[in-house]
Design brief:
The structure is a homodimer. By secondary structure, chain A is an alpha/beta fold. Chain A folds into two domains: 7-65; 72-281, Uncharacterised protein PF01937, DUF89, domain 3 (Rossmann fold). The first copy, chain A, is 51% helix and 11% strand. The first copy, chain A, has 13 helices and seven strands. Chain A has helices at 7-22, 26-39, 50-53, 55-65, 72-95, 99-113, 124-132, 141-149, 163-176, 196-201, 225-233, 242-248, 264-270, and strands spanning 136-137, 153-157, 180-185, 207-210, 237-240, 255-260, 277-281. The first copy, chain A, has a seven-stranded mixed β-sheet, with helices on both faces. In chain A, helix 10 links the parallel strand 3 and strand 4 (207-210). In chain A, helix 5 packs across helix 9. The longest helix of chain A is centred in the N-terminal third of the chain and has 24 residues, at 72-95. At the A-B interface, helix 1 and helix 2 of A face helix 1 and helix 2 of B.
């Protein structure tokens, strides 16, 4: 999907959050904001998706603060916190009448729980259960299940560190059903996106591959040739998170998107209310 | 209070909201965002309060869109909507064991209800009752009551149109207790702040005076000499809304601030959690 006017103030908010994560030095944070302010006019909304619009902004954060991985500690914390919930997730899947559907739901909750956006300590189990009882759109689950039955290999595009743990019930269930999973992560740190190490720390036992990219979402122009070829040949892709939807929704590829709609532009694009947890089949799914 | 780093992304959000309220023309909205982006580096956080930091931003919105009063229709709507609740407010005050405290509470709810920030139609009565049961800090009410007993004249600094209706139970009760109220409004439209006409449409029967200002908050440098003199002589001031706290909290004036803490910088400044409804006595209250 194309970036929207609303992406511009959002980019300023993102820059502020990333700068604060990178440094406590107020002068440097201010410098980031000033430079991002200057950059605004160069963002060509017609030519880019929202994650592409944000690329120069995260570069500014790194250039000004000198910090390559502002969310490093936060990511480790989130993984640790999410791992405490893992036994509950497995219990829920095992006790469900439809374990695959429950695992899909949990993977989506992982996207919704957004460990990165909290100010205060919360009870993560309560939060999990609160989200579990909120708005899901899973009408395309039957198509998902039907398609997946026929597949041997699944390309799984990971999103945030921490959310990774919530992916495990789904990919472990698929592995048990003899599917080969390729769990695709970022080559370099960007925001709180998952890297190989994050995936490993989350207990991912399936094959981890790199997109070759160090930008948010899955922007094929920024991925390695190897990954782009792999992506082109994939017959079933699960893409986690809004950034992956934003960057891939217009690509001719067999994708199921799993994410929470977190802002107004995505709500307009998908036709679902902000806050809805979505399983959406790409319109190009063959 | 001084403006904070967090005010900068907030200013970009405010500009976006105001630009959208002023025009549907995407090119103009984009021009506003670009110009605000350029302006960011000139904001001197050390020298201004948050509403002062936003002054050039609202000027950009007006200059680019040519619209002097982007919230005109919204304000009328909010007043109309708030007026439907007026009988309930009066009923609550009349049935309360402590009518003055109830009226103070209602005036604060008016600040919290924030008719301007909603996407969807809500049930305003339910919203009123939801807020009524949320977090209030009214520990300074006894001091408020004690001080007000001794006063004959009260300067009441209004905030938003719509909120004005929620002020009525309090100012009408004070009028019944033989206090003379001066209800101070903006000279020119700024965001959804109250002007004389808005106050009249809200049914304010007390004396309406103008601050002489067309900027948010009560920034004395932007007020008329007449108002500044009046303000200096006031012995009891009630200031509604966060913008008035931000612009007046460091002034040596006998003020009780009534507002909901709506962002992190104000939470840090006051020591209360975001979302708390506050009655705070100025530290300079003599």
């Amino acid at each position: 999907m194309k970036a929207q006017l609303a992406c511009i103030p959002c980019i300023m908010n993102q820059a502020f959050r990333a700068a604060k994560a990178a440094t406590k030095n107020k002068k440097l944070i201010r410098e980031v904001l000033n430079k991002v302010g200057e950059e605004v006019k160069y963002i060509d909304l017609k030519k880019c998706t929202p994650p592409e619009a944000a690329i120069p902004i995260y570069q500014i954060v790194t250039d000004v603060t000198g910090v390559e991985d502002p969310y490093k500690n936060a990511k480790r914390e989130h993984i640790k916190e999410a791992l405490t919930l893992y036994p509950l997730m497995i219990e829920k899947v095992e006790q469900s009448k439809n374990p695959l559907k429950e695992a899909v739901k949990i993977a989506t909750i992982g996207n919704a729980i957004d460990l990165g956006s909290r100010f205060d300590k919360i009870d993560i189990t309560k939060e999990f259960e609160r989200i579990e009882n909120s708005l899901f759109y899973l009408d395309e689950f039957d198509a998902f299940e039907e398609k997946i039955e026929k597949e041997k290999e699944i390309l799984y595009l990971a999103d945030n560190a921490g959310e990774t743990v919530f992916d495990r019930p789904l990919i472990e269930l698929l592995a048990k059903r003899n599917k080969k999973i390729y769990y695709a992560v970022k080559e370099k740190p960007i925001i709180n996106d998952t890297t190989r190490l994050d995936a490993e720390l989350s207990g991912i036992k399936e094959e981890i591959i790199s997109t070759g990219s160090g930008v948010a979402g899955t922007i094929l122009n920024y991925c390695s040739k190897e990954f782009v070829n792999f992506f082109a040949k994939a017959t079933f892709i699960i893409a986690k998170g809004q950034g992956n939807y934003e960057s891939l929704s217009s690509k001719r590829a067999p994708i199921f998107f799993l994410f929470k709609a977190k802002c107004k532009p995505i709500a307009m694009e998908t036709g679902f209310r902000v806050g809805t947890m979505l399983l959406i089949k790409s319109k190009y799914f063959r």
